[in-house]
Amino acid sequence: MAERKNGRGPDSEEMINRWFEEKYLPNNVLAIGEPYHSEEVFCYLVKGEKADMLIDTGMGIGSIASFVCEHRNPFGQLIIVNTHWHFDHIGGNEDFERHAIFVPNGGNEAALIRKGWTHKQLQKYYFEEGFGPGKIPEAFDPSTFEIPPVDNVLPRIDDTWSIDLGGRVVRAIETPGHTPGGVTFFDETNGLLFPADMLYEGPLYAFEKESSPDDYFESLKKIKELYGDKIKTIHPGHNYPENTLEPDLLDEAIALFEKARNGNLPDCAAEFPHTSEYQQSGISKRTGKSRRLKLIVSNKYVCSNKSSK
């Protein structure tokens, strides 16, 4: 393997196999996890009869292109998409320099994806501190790592975008809110929703400068309106090795945003300064285990909605 320009050393087969975690899901979907960093990001290889689609490219710490090569159909086309511009979802873009990478057409996502991330920008998100003890890969230096610019991105993904992979059709949904131009993917053949950072168990971040709680809320309602009765499972971009959440989670997230929009008092102490947190606890119908959803919005947003009542 060649050495990359971003400070990552050569990738050995052992390093790649140790860094990534694979989990085969029903309906011919491979979840690709990176469990040794606190982001716990997941990408998905959605397999069709004539093409495979890779949703996001992860953190860029190990070569996801090499990992995917071992699992995809070598005779079919590989379609690569980014859901939004955050570093943990575009880090492996450089590994696919011979491919077009389809990215959101809305907001400023395409321009930001092209730029990559400097090491200084990554440190604002505590990148170096995110590795588990003894989990930094050999030949990898987190103190110099960056995500270099790429020029092979095509801003094509909007509400009109869809792809027939052969035996399954995947459609895009424009879902701004977490970022200005983020997108969600829906496998309408099998009822699978891939919302990346828009929806998962745990904290939904809607308070950072690139986030819009109003847009976030409208995007969740849009998913509900378009596909609410068709979603069978939700496959999120973070945190959970089972990678299979129930469609009820969408209703719970909408309910939390309604609390914030109504100016309700927060449910718990704030994790971040100048924010309000709302929580929804429940029991998974699928596993019988407890689960928790949390929404974090700015105090300003809550107060402005309260004052408008």
Describe this structure in words.
This protein is of the alpha/beta class and 309 residues long. The protein has a single domain, classed as Metallo-beta-lactamase, Chain A (4-Layer Sandwich), CATH 3.60.15.10. 22% of the residues lie in helices and 26% in strands. The protein has eight helices and 15 strands. The protein has a seven-stranded mixed beta sheet. Helix 6 runs antiparallel to helix 7.
In short:
The chain has 309 residues and is an alpha/beta fold.
Observed structural traits:
309 residues; alpha/beta; Metallo-beta-lactamase, Chain A; 5-stranded mixed sheet; 8 helices; globular
What are the SSEs and their pairings?
Blueprint: H1 13-19, E1 21-25, E2 29-33, E3 42-47, E4 51-55, H2 64-69, E5 77-81, H3 87-90, E6 101-104, H4 109-115, H5 119-123, E7 153-157, E8 162-164, E9 169-174, E10 183-187, E11 192-196, E12 202-206, H6 213-227, E13 233-236, H7 248-261, E14 275-283, E15 290-298, H8 299-307
CATH level-4 homologous superfamily: Ribonuclease Z/Hydroxyacylglutathione hydrolase-like
Tally of helical segments: 8
The total domain count is 1
What is the terminal-to-terminal distance?
60 Å
Residue fraction in strands: 25-35%
CATH class: Alpha Beta
Structural class: alpha/beta
